[in-house]
Amino acid sequence: MFSATKPSRGLRRSRRGAIVALIGVSLPMLVMLCAYAVDVAYMELVRAQLRISADSAAKAALIYEGSGQTQTAAITFAQTVANNNLVAGQQVAYSSSNILFGNAVKNGSGVYVFTSGGTPTNSVQATGTVTPALLLGAYLPVSNFTTQQVSTATRISHDIMLVLDRSASMAFDLSANEFVYPPDVSTNRTQLQCYFTPPSATASRWAALTSAVNSFVNALTARNLDVHVGLVTYAETYSFGNYSATEATLDVTLTPTYSSIITAMNNYGTNGPLLGDTNISAGLALAQTELTGSDARTSATDRTIILLTDGVATQGNTNIASLTQSYAQNSGIVTHVITFGGEAGSGTVQAAMQQAATNGNGNFYNAPTAATLTQAFQDIADSLPAVLVQ
Fold first, then answer.
1. Model confidence over 272-318: pLDDT tens digits?
2. Does residue 165 share a domain with residue 32?
3. CATH of the domain at 296
4. From CA 57, how far away is CA 45, in angstroms rounded?
């Protein structure tokens, strides 16, 4: 049999002594681990604050210089803005050597690459550096740390081509019915007479489109974006007596003067009938040439096509998705697609146009009414970035 015996007093004192010694060794280590954990979180907070400071300095200098001020004045303004964003409770000093002006262009991976002193000037790079004291530095081998953040702000310049359907169906009313014209055109006229009559100034699809495009350019103006806009319209090559149409025309070259866009559209609405079928590919090809030709700006960081159709492609290359994919891959052109009533508003035609937008890295909008058409153009205008910070 076993008999339980109590440890001797000497053994108990030995164990208590060992525990005290263990605590004496472990406690400083625990304090250092806690201090380290607290200061790691603090360092991340400081880095986040410094990122905000550098972003604000770069963006402020870019916007101020873009408003017509000198680079020296822009640096002073950036320093003032940055001083309002404290980092670790202190102001960050941005000298002129920490705020650089240059050019940024998009590489093949879609990343903007900054070149200091590059032209045309569309970017500012700000570098912020701080060396704050750690909160619990007294318990760590070091008492402070140095961190740096580099921020680049790029002014986004857009070249946009409107590629708009001016086939005969754009003179129809806003229903999805074939050869149904608004009452102000169809009253006392035969269907053939309507076909060779200018579209209704108030109730035709062309009138709704003109109004939507007017809202679009007004939105660009209100946002003060750096955007040049051009206009291509398309139908088919058509001739009947004194009447004729061309499959695609460059109506307005890329320009910052948006009034010329509306003037050109009004001219189609008042000076003659809309004729012929739908050659979307001819319109896209002409727009692609304009976006990559001499009228396009080398400083344009984004190139965009906004394609609108109310019907199925009946002429030329009808595989529109293959064209938009080619433009995206070879020219970096984004294509947004809007279908407006008619045949394009449903079924396989709408699916094909949606695929064209997807392949063109753009957005697809189906607009069954004049209101939704205007909203589609408004959404595109609102989505255009003014300044990119990275």
1. 799 888 899 999 999 999 999 999 987 787 899 999 998 888 888 98
2. no
3. 3.40.50.410
4. 19
